[in-house]
Amino acid sequence: MMKLSGLALAAGLAASLMGSTAFAEAVTATPGQEVNAVLLPKFLGILPFDQANRGAQEAAAELGSTGKLEFIGPTPENSAAGQIEMLTTATTQKQHVVMLSNNAGDQIAPAAEAAAAAGTRVVTWDSPIPNGAGEAFFVAQVDFGSIGVVMADMAFDLAGGAGEVAILSASPDASNQNAWIEAMKGTMAADAKYKDLKLVDVVYGNDQSEESYNKALGLVDKYPDLKVIMAPTTVGIVAAAKAMQDEGLCEKVKVSGLGLPAEMVSYSLNGCAPAFALWSFVDLGYLTYQASYALATGAIKGEVGEEFTAGRMGSFKIEEDPGRAGAKRILMGPFTVYTKDNVEAAAN
Amino acid sequence: MTLLTRASPQTLRLLALGLALMATILFFATQIEGYLSPRMFNRISTSAAVVLPLAVGQAIVIMTRNIDLSVGSIMGVVAYMAGQSLSAMPDLHPILTVLLCMAIGAGFGALNGIIIAFGRVPAIIVTLGTLALYRSFLVEWSDAKTITTASLPQWLVNLPQANAFSIGGLDVRVTVVLALAACLVTGLALTFYRPARRFYAVGSNPDAAVMAGINARRVVLSAFIISGAFAGLSGFLFLAKFGNITVVAGLGFELKSIAAVVVGGVSIMGGTGSMIGVLMGALLVDTIDNSLTRWAVVSEFWRDALLGGLIMAAVTLDTLASRQLTRMRKGGTE
Fold this sequence. Notes:
- The complex is a heterodimer.
- Chain A is built from eleven helices and 14 strands.
- Chain A has helices at about 1-20, 45-65, 80-90, 110-115, 145-160, 175-190, 210-220, 235-245, 260-270, 280-295, 345, and strands at about 35-40, 70, 95-100, 120-125, 135-140, 165-170, 195-205, 225-230, 255, 275-280, 305-310, 315-320, 330, 335-340.
- In chain A, the strands form three sheets. Chain A has an eight-stranded mixed sheet with strand order 2-1-3-4-5-13-12-11, sandwiched between helices.
- Residues about 1-20 of chain A have low confidence and may be disordered.
- By secondary structure, chain B is mainly α.
- Chain B has a single domain, classed as ABC transporter involved in vitamin B12 uptake, BtuC (Orthogonal Bundle).
- A two-stranded antiparallel sheet of chain B has the order 1-2.
- Chain B is globular and about 65 Å long.
- Classes of the chains: A alpha/beta, B mainly alpha.
- The interface of A and B includes residues 77, 204, 263 and 266 of A.
């Protein structure tokens, strides 16, 4: 595990360096202006998005925006269609900015373009619009490429360097998960270190406990030699860990991926999920609001190379998104790899 | 031919369902390695056990010519609230817990039933509304907190693995027995308990039922209360099996329950249906679902389509067969 933490530190360091390298002068948005903003998560009711809202509210209070910050989102069963509808509604309400964690793939692009044309800026966070249309920029929690590396490395360590790995993702429309899976595949293909690691399947639990649980069991039935289930989704990773624990398979099949320490603590300690990664959703919400405020007040225009100050988090720069041609991003970072040594402290 | 014409359509339907189930199992046994194993039996039986009570309740509602689309949401709310109650009161007795779950479910069911029976609003509209309403309530209620297994009492965490008994190397879990008991009791009541026959009466001919002195509104109301209570039982089983409950718990289960009921031969036009059919329907749908997950030939994205196709095939076959049968009957008596 030492190596993992070291790697995470290095990746984290690199990520924060990239974020804060100062070439141009960082601008600071004038506080106390009226910015009406909507924070639109994939859906309401799960912890990560609630944490992001906490961060955004914190930033809004700090900046003293005289406008409103609304936290609205679709119900889980209506995620994609609901998001498109809410984005359209926000446009007709002439909101200044909509902060979107996209769960609708490219389907939402026309609505985002219409919003941009009507003067409502669309800033994505957590999950971008894949083709980048209509989006001002994307506030990336971490470099998507580095997530691929850390997932490949966790799988490598847990499998002991060789063996079968399967991925349990969220929905097939989730652009962040898809990008991470691609990045993981890319990492595994590019480096000879992973040549004995075999990615056998990608299945989707649609962010539902029972579907993820059943898919995890299906994986171990289908691939008797499976060593690692990699779940880059907070719902999937808990469900898979529970499934392995229920079946008494924790010795044989390790679960890893992206999870919330508060939900994963027992599985980390009992060895079902010895290592997983995540970043701070509170910080992500905070940074997203800071960037959106700067954009809405005209302090930044949303062009590559611009740099701005984001309160307690320091300064950030808009750059080309290496994963999406023509799109722009602001990189947050870092992420943390959790093991039995640090998970309890983070869970509280 | 005489045998075919003499047996009741209901019996024939069950026979066909049994054959379909066997054919499905035999087919996948040739396709999936280690399919006919105690492990696979456990996978399917415990997974079907979560849907079965839901399907039993749904069947009663459908018998009365109504439909309950809100059961998945009720199940999710109950699973969440029960998890919350158990975190707050870990000493709550297991039997009381189950009763609490069914009572919460019955409460939500009663709300549906009152609007439908006394407000005279079609069930499909009311429960489509409450499907979203109960889910939104859960989103508000949960405050984005997840129920985790760590906060649940040990007996509940161990329950899904607890064995009731074993036959021939096959372990039958306590949760499976619980679901089967719900199905059996309802089946017996529908056959032998007179007030329960009113569900059939109201569904097969509402006007005649009213003229016969049956209070149809009360019957419909009780159908929805029962459906809610069984959704509550499913919520309990869901909580026990999956442990980690978020606001998406039970999402889409209304369709699973309707699939089980319709495949099980309960007519969507009301008035007919048996619990053994519902049991077989739930088993068939779950067997197909679980098997497709493990079948390497179909990809992830075709699985749902294939499942939908199979359900449609089952219903079409059923309709055609009974039409054919009726025609043969008519021919025979002339």
